[in-house]
Amino acid sequence: MDNITHVNVGSLSEATAELAKGKAEVIAGGTDMISTLKGFISDNLPERLVNIKKISGLDYIREDGGFLKIGALTTLTTIANSSLVKDKYTVLAQAALAVASPELRNMGTIGGNICQRNRCIYFRNEHNDFNCLRKNPSGLCYALTGVNRYHSIFGAMDGCVAACPSDTAPALVALKAKIVTTAKTWESAEFFGAKNEHICNLAEDEIVTEIQIPTPASGTKSAYKKFAFRKSFDFPLVSAAVVISGSDASIVLGGVYPAPRVATGAQDAIKGQTINEPNATAAGDAAVKGAVDLGQNKWKFQVTKTMVKRAILACA
Amino acid sequence: MALPQFKILGNPDTYDEKTYPILLGKAQFTEDYLAGKKLWGACKHATIAHANIRSIDASKALQVPGIKAVLTYEDCPQIFSREVLFWGQPIVGIVADDWYKAQRAINLIDVDYEELPAITDPDEAFSKGDAAPLSGKRAESNIAIANHDRGNIENAVAQADLTVSYDQYWTTTHQHGPIEQYQATAYWLNDHCYVYQSSQACHGNQIAVVNYLETTANKVHCISRHAGTGHGARLSNWESGVAAYMSKAVNGAPVHFKCSKKHSMLFRIRQHDHRSKYTWSVKNDGTILGADVEYYTNGTGAGINTVFQHTWNIPNVRWRGKGAYINVPDRGAWRCVSDPPNGVQVSTALDKLAAELDMNPYELRKKNIMPVDMPALDPPNYYFAAKEVNECFETVAQESGYLSKWHKPGENNVMDDGRLHGIGIHCHHDSHGSVAAASNAALVLMKADGTCVISVGCTGIHNTTAQSKHFVAEVMGLKFEHVSVGDWANTDVTLDTGRHGGSTFTGAQSTFVTASLDARAKVFAIALTKAPFKDIAGITVDDLDAEDSEIFYTKDPSQRMSYRTAMSGAPGIAGYGIGWAAAGGGHAGGGLQRSIHGLPVGTKVNTTSGCASVVEVAVDPETGEVEVLGHWNAVGTGRVVFRKGVLNQIGSGSELQICQALYYGDVYDPLTGAVISSQYTEAQLPTTLDCKPSRHTLLPVEGDDHAGPLGAHGIGEPCVGSYACIMTAIFNATGKWVDTDHGAANPDRVLKALGKA
């Protein structure tokens, strides 16, 4: 039961080598990691932290070869304030701006935001008082029989009903981003999951290096709408990321499923339609078709409809 | 006799120097004390709602290098109990050379429980009564009874045009959520124990530690300086006891026991949740003849309360109160008052009645508020209860434009952006704000340079110290900056000016008034021996006065000397005083000191503060979000002492009642009774970014309280009724009542009330 070791690395290969030794995790901004460690929320916590902040060349925003490329160590503040991102990838800038508080955005990176641990009230209980299935293969999902006010309205993913807490995740999926790691290039829609404590499907020694977003067609409009009880810095309870490009629409929900949820019904309802109140309302209604009330979260149906509607209207 | 004009009291430019160390990063909190020279302590908490502990196996933890000691109920039954009464109860203490090591050791300690039947739902406790399993918190029954009768309720029913019943919902719990977690440092020298804890009542802490250690007061030395918020809960002294025992277990070495944020949230006392059923017997014109009240709390506070009792002119009352003591963290009055949830219960019942009678809630209240010259309707029948309530009610109604903005619930109120407008009004006579401090002592020390130091005896986490300074400067005629406050509380050195902190902040600081008069008289006596006064024939102390740190002859003010001159060459002077006796509960023992409403001097009066609020809201029917558009709070202050402090206190009270109404609530796992809102995230405490001071209109209603020599009294913690107003404003906006279900009117609950969830 030693203290945690902090290891500085100067390159990605060094970092992956450290991770491959086991019982190690990457730390960058540390805004999730530090509170996780201090809370002793899991029996699987790392014994070594591999500090990748010293690796140069992972903090950038540029357009290149038909893609917007963002280095994994780029802070959320940088992304939110980038005029390039605000102009052409508005949904991502708005999503980055919606994350937490200014102080946390100054430290938090986009790589960290899409790789964080989930925020379920049972999962996050300190001293692992609820050793749920995300932490323990033989565990169970306490929210199914307990408090599920904030949880998924589209059922479980790998047995878990915790909602994805990332603001940038639905925006990236809506933009059809790719996520480049030290091992492969992921389609963003495949990147997120609920197989372990984190909201992503990375292998233990795999590190995100870059986000690649296809440059949208001219005239593309996008928006991100977030709902949380506290406007100051809560994780999203419901969010909607909308990208409308000509007659095409990409609508992805956050906070309503363990991974970003592509709202295919809403997309079909608004594609090619005039953006107005009735059409946006219809799309919102379609977004919650098939939603499931766990007992305490039916209110999310109404808010999801509203967020989708308002995000679509913001693209007018 | 009119009050004099004041130079210091009420001055808008005075300041609170106790905030400077905090703002400048120079405050000394508990963890700073003996920094780097302490061992560390933590606690393991029970993960079961009700049980007896069969065994505790700490062998694995004790094998870890750096773990120094483990304490259980067998070592210190005064601290840890064998019986677990709620999930989260601390049951084992661990001492280590590092706090995180102690925290990790928690998971190595195995506890074997004999599970006992638990009851975690207060409604279940009420419905089952004696058939419910005993929680273990009370010997014979889970339910404490608190009944009260006034007049004859049956007569009221018989005479009424209408008798109608309304059920109210459970109000929220509320936890202090301080920034500085609960913690204490302790060490021993022989059989003397030294304890440092951020406490609002250092001397009260000493008494508690004496009891924990079963020793004598001369062997316990408590110190306190600054505290990181949490006023009201800074009376907690359990941590001092834990630290003392932990230190004893390691041969007296200094140990710093610190609760984690989760532990600080888990088992600390929280505001009791309230619900009620009000049956009104009323005339068609809105005159209330009787109130038949079933009142329920989750914990203490089920008895008839000041908010109801001293506000409303209701001749017949039957009050049946029941408090449930069940297997959840302890409940009590948050910041020692129940007034906010009391206010919600009565105000929502009044607004339901107003809707039934098709009356404006303002008119219904106006018809039934106690007149200013009416004595209290219950013994001891003191006068004066409703003076400030009436003043504040009219002030807030006028300032807010309530009457021009009010509409029937849910009617004609759609705003341009599609949201629903609502407005609510509330008033009450608060349980706080008394004129008289209890008879605790104060010390005022005049130094050779003519400046003054006062010892307040408590930490500077509230306005007490600043208020004290105002009284001293005013009474002694010193410049404000010539009075400084000793910001240490040390039971070996400072006086016990506030045994539990309450008497030092609610009240006119009468102890410092009398101590100042004593010091002033002593300094004046010295001044008489010096020129120019010594050359004035027949001059006495009574011929002198002071202002701006200068003593002058009242018959010829050109004859004067500075305090510095008077004190020059003199030994330090101590002025000592005790407060004028309180009859208890906000009543001035001496009664009125100035006649009012035809009541003679000496009439026993109730002088706690009155208040009233109006809140204007916009409700988004598509998301359930409630935005406070405007917030008017009128609070009776008597003569304002520390003006900036008054405004800060009313303003902060306004924000925290928004927190109670719209944000905060404990979250319980229904199967285990576990409090799973162990972090501010789940408990939804608003941050400073959620607060908008611009929406508040703060309205101190000044006057002479007629009961103290300076006309001042306290304003409680504070006396603010916005929680009630917000709930009634949401009803006014939507025409629906939100079931807050032990929590706040969060958007999901508002949507549910609207039928959209």
What does this structure look like?
- The complex is a heterodimer of chains A (about 325) and B (about 750).
- Helix content of chain A is about 30%, strand content about 20%.
- The termini of chain A are far apart.
- The model of chain A has no long low-confidence stretch (mean pLDDT about 95).
- Chain A contains twelve helices and twelve strands.
- Chain A has helices spanning about 10-20, 35-40, 75-80, 85-90, 90-100, 100-105, 110-115, 170-175, 190, 265-270, 275-285, 300-315; strands spanning about 5-10, 25, 50, 60-65, 65-70, 180, 185, 210-215, 220-225, 240-245, 250-255, 260.
- With about 750 residues, chain B is an alpha+beta fold.
- Chain B folds into three domains: about 20-25 and about 435-580, Aldehyde Oxidoreductase, domain 4; about 35-115 and about 180-260, Aldehyde Oxidoreductase, domain 3 (Alpha-Beta Complex); about 270-435 and about 605-755, Aldehyde Oxidoreductase, domain 4 (2-Layer Sandwich).
- Helices cover about 25% and strands about 25% of the residues of chain B.
- Chain B contains 21 helices and 31 strands.
- In chain B, helix 14 (about 465-475) packs parallel to helix 16.
- The interface between A and B is large, with 39 and 43 residues.
Topology record:
The complex is a heterodimer of chains A (316) and B (757).
Chain A: E1 5-8, H1 12-20, E2 24-27, H2 33-39, E3 48-51, E4 61-64, E5 67-71, H3 76-81, H4 83-88, H5 90-98, H6 102-107, H7 110-113, H8 168-174, E6 178-181, E7 185-187, H9 188-191, E8 208-214, E9 221-227, E10 238-245, E11 248-254, E12 261-262, H10 264-270, H11 277-287, H12 299-313
Parallel strand pairs in A: 1-3, 2-3
Antiparallel strand pairs in A: 4-5, 5-8, 6-7, 6-8, 9-10, 10-11, 11-12
Chain B: H1 19-23, E1 39-45, E2 51-57, H2 59-62, E3 67-71, E4 83-84, E5 90-96, H3 99-106, E6 110-115, H4 122-128, E7 143-150, H5 153-159, E8 162-167, E9 183-189, E10 192-196, H6 202-213, E11 220-224, H7 238-249, E12 255-258, H8 261-266, E13 270-271, E14 274-282, E15 288-297, H9 306-309, E16 316-324, E17 331-332, H10 339-356, H11 361-368, H12 387-400, H13 402-405, E18 420-429, E19 441-446, E20 452-455, H14 464-476, E21 483-486, E22 489-490, H15 502-505, H16 510-527, E23 544-547, E24 550-553, E25 556-562, H17 563-567, E26 573-578, E27 582-584, E28 587-588, E29 610-619, E30 626-638, H18 643-662, H19 680-683, E31 696-702, H20 722-734, H21 747-753
Parallel strand pairs in B: 1-12, 10-11, 13-17, 15-16, 20-21, 30-31
Antiparallel strand pairs in B: 1-5, 2-4, 2-6, 3-5, 7-16, 8-14, 9-10, 9-12, 11-22, 14-15, 18-29, 19-20, 19-26, 23-24, 24-25, 27-28, 29-30
